[in-house]
Amino acid sequence: MNPGIGMPEIAVLLLLALIVVGPAELPKMMRTIGRFVNQARSMAKDFQRSFDEMGRESELADLRKEIENLKSANPVGEISEELRKAKEDLRHAEAVGSKEKAVKPAAKPVADLVPDDGNTIAPPREKPKPAQPIKTGAPEDE
């Protein structure tokens, strides 16, 4: 029960209610008090539910915003947009090139395009020259 109200206090309140109201009206009064308490509890539950619902709606709105931010920061979308633009530029250049029949620039050799990092196949090189003996400066015995 409520703090500060024990069995002796409740007994005193019931005795006073019995004296003031009378034994015939006491059950009606207790029923009325019970209905009032029940209505107060249901109103409190409705109030709590409305606050919980508002909290859930605000959380959902925050989640929606976060999802939209993640979608807008998607690198796949950016890459696909860049590829689409490049494809359109290529089609445009091909259309203009076929009309003008422009001269294509000379292609660079493959060796210039691919760096030699040890993982690629290098073009053949000249045979190394044979090693020359090193002269030390001391006279040699013949």
From TrEMBL:
Compositional bias of kind Low complexity: 104-117
Keyword rRNA-binding: no
Annotated localization: Cell membrane; Membrane
Alphabetized UniProt keyword annotations: Cell membrane, Membrane, Protein transport, Translocation, Transmembrane, Transmembrane helix, Transport
Chief site of localization: membrane
Ranges of biased composition (kind: Basic and acidic residues): 93-103
Bilayer topology term: Single-pass membrane protein
Region span, Disordered: 93-142
UniProt-listed NCBIfam families: tatB
Its biological purpose: Part of the twin-arginine translocation (Tat) system that transports large folded proteins containing a characteristic twin-arginine motif in their signal peptide across membranes. Together with TatC, TatB is part of a receptor directly interacting with Tat signal peptides. TatB may form an oligomeric binding site that transiently accommodates folded Tat precursor proteins before their translocation.
Assembly information from the UniProt record: The Tat system comprises two distinct complexes: a TatABC complex, containing multiple copies of TatA, TatB and TatC subunits, and a separate TatA complex, containing only TatA subunits. Substrates initially bind to the TatABC complex, which probably triggers association of the separate TatA complex to form the active translocon.
Record family assignment: Belongs to the TatB family.
PANTHER family, A to Z: SEC-INDEPENDENT PROTEIN TRANSLOCASE PROTEIN TATA, CHLOROPLASTIC
Protein name: Sec-independent protein translocase protein TatB
